[in-house]
């Protein structure tokens, strides 16, 4: 009786939700107020809700398909079995591209942030040198193995949540409600800027790589996995809504074009916020939070990219093999960030485009094949995915307006 009770006892839903929330809410959140400035607050709320619903739906469909396979079966196994090797190869390339370009984005964004902090300590250092130093530190942690990554990630996520609570409490007291709720000036409209924001919102709800782990974590318990996905994504949505309220409520809309001109990265947004905050402690807290957000995202993405490369290329787990994997994981994005330092916002947009394939369209196709029918949920996901691809293409070809840009 005791053994049966123990076998049924499962981890709390809260821990699974924290895994999802910790993965979702990272350095990418700093792009949201910048890319949403043109559409402004009302449209930003609507677009976040649509993206949250679409990404939660795709995650739930992928979970249902995963539960039909043995524990540990991931994207590659499911895609090969249901869609064939061609789709599996395309899916694998899209995952590799998304993880690689996010690594580039976080290195590009982290350089100015850490260069500023290190310089304030009296150690003059260039942005490129700061990028190299941070990349080497993260690469060392990832090279040492999963234990180091998980411990540092846990610390960063807990610190990030604590800082967010303190920050929101302070920033919300300074929100300028009339500015936040202001309508467009005569002859101006906010809605033309709305469609181009979708790929960034999609990229801000990426957690699908964690679903396989949750299936094993909860031993295939559908109810607990579903609750963890819903709670984790709801927490992420709430944090994003508070973040947008705090940033847009403290920065007027006409302050964002200058942020865009400065690259639209974390350093530019932090600099603008520091100029508008009336309490020095909040500016300091914001700076500390940005450091933890960057490290947590950087570690999570690069650990996933490291494992993906090692698995795809069949590298072993010896120190020499891990060094080769680490070189392929970190060197190309690092060199790209030094050669093209201002690509943070554009990189997140590219990530949103390719994440549409493996986080929206592939789960929809897997559900379609698994169910042998095209359900309403599958149709909704296809529409959601098509909207994101259309938005990115229209933005890329300059059809959609870009606030503060061109």
TrEMBL record:
Residues passing through the membrane, by range: 12-34, 40-65, 86-107, 127-145, 152-173, 193-218, 225-243, 281-309, 321-338, 344-366, 378-399
The keyword Transmembrane is assigned to this record: yes
InterPro entries, per database record: Amino_acid_transport_2, Trp_tyr_transpt
Coarse class of the protein's main subcellular location: membrane
Family matches, as PANTHER family: LOW AFFINITY TRYPTOPHAN PERMEASE-RELATED
Function noted in UniProt: Involved in transporting aromatic amino acids across the cytoplasmic membrane.
Family recorded in the similarity comment: Belongs to the amino acid/polyamine transporter 2 family. Mtr/TnaB/TyrP permease subfamily.
Protein name, UniProt field: Aromatic amino acid permease
């Amino acid at each position: 009786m005791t053994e049966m009770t123990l076998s049924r006892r499962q981890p709390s839903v809260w821990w699974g939700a924290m895994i999802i929330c910790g993965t979702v809410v990272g350095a990418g959140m700093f792009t949201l107020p910048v890319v949403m400035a043109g559409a402004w607050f009302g449209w930003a709320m609507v677009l976040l809700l649509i993206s949250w619903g679409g990404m939660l739906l795709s995650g739930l469909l992928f979970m249902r398909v995963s539960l039909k396979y043995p524990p540990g079966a991931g994207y590659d196994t499911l895609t090969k079995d249901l869609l064939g090797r061609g789709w599996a190869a395309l899916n694998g390339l899209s995952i590799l591209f998304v993880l690689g370009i996010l690594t580039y984005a976080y290195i590009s964004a982290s350089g100015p942030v850490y260069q500023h902090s290190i310089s304030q300590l009296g150690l003059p250092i260039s942005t490129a040198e700061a990028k190299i130093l941070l990349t080497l530190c993260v690469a060392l942690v990832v090279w040492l193995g999963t234990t180091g990554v998980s411990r540092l990630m846990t610390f960063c996520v807990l610190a990030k949540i604590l800082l967010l609570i303190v920050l929101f409490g302070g920033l919300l007291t300074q929100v300028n409600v009339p500015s936040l709720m202001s309508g467009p000036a005569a002859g101006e409209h906010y809605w033309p800027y709305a469609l181009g924001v979708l790929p960034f919102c999609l990229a801000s709800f990426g957690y699908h790589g964690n679903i396989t782990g949750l299936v094993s974590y909860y031993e295939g318990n559908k109810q607990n996995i579903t609750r963890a996905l819903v709670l984790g994504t709801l927490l992420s949505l709430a944090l994003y809504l508070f973040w947008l309220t705090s940033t847009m409520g403290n920065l007027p809309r006409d302050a964002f074009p200058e942020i865009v001109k400065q690259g639209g990265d974390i350093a530019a947004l932090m600099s603008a916020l520091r100029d508008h905050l009336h309490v020095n402690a909040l500016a300091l807290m914001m700076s500390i939070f940005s450091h933890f957000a960057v490290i947590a995202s950087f570690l999570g993405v690069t650990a996933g990219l490291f494992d993906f490369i090692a698995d795809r290329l069949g590298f072993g787990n010896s120190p020499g093999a891990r060094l080769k994997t680490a070189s392929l994981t970190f060197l190309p994005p690092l060199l790209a960030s030094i050669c093209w330092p201002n690509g943070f916002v554009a990189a997140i947009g590219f990530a949103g485009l390719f994440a549409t394939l493996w986080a929206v369209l592939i789960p929809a196709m897997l559900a379609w094949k698994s169910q042998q029918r095209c359900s309403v949920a599958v149709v909704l996901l296809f529409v959601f995915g098509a909207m994101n691809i259309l938005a990115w293409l229209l933005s890329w070809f300059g059809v959609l307006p870009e606030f503060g840009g061109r």
